[in-house]
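Example: 4a-hydroxytetrahydrobiopterin dehydratase.
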Amino acid sequence: MQRNILQLSRLARTQTAQPVPRVFWTATRTCPLRVPIASTSVATCSPVRMASSTNQPSTIRFSEGEETEQVATGLNSLRQRGWQLDQDGMGVTKTFYFKAYLKAVSFVNVIAAESAAKKHHPTITLRFGSVDVHWTTHNPRGLSQKDVTLAEHCENGADLIGAVKQGEGQKCY
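Written out as structure tokens, the predicted fold is:
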């Protein structure tokens, strides 16, 4: 047994390492579902802005079959707490800031647990001191009550974990 381990060790040192293909997930504007992209090196990603205060859509696109007044009321409440419509007017997005990386990870876990229970999943970008959350309904496309309800859950989770204002979060130096 000892001899086999030594032989494997020598073999590993003499062979040159080949790059291991990695798969990265991305979303495009025309297809918000994540699509795998194969790469042999680590990707350097910059976040995709899903909404900006200067480029707000003129209309909200609700999911088919939704009670638009109820969803619009929930959306107005979310907007007062910093949520914005995405570029297409079919979802809501917000960035949450935390003083510690593990708090940001805990926040993602809170979202993941509830979204798994409700079978409705967001697009989440985790950074060193912040988390971007984007809720939209894919089938039927548009903004739905599920998006509003789970965005409110994010607000409650962020309060529980200790989200801070922009600029007060942990920075990577």
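The CA atoms of residues 132 and 164 lie 14 Å apart.
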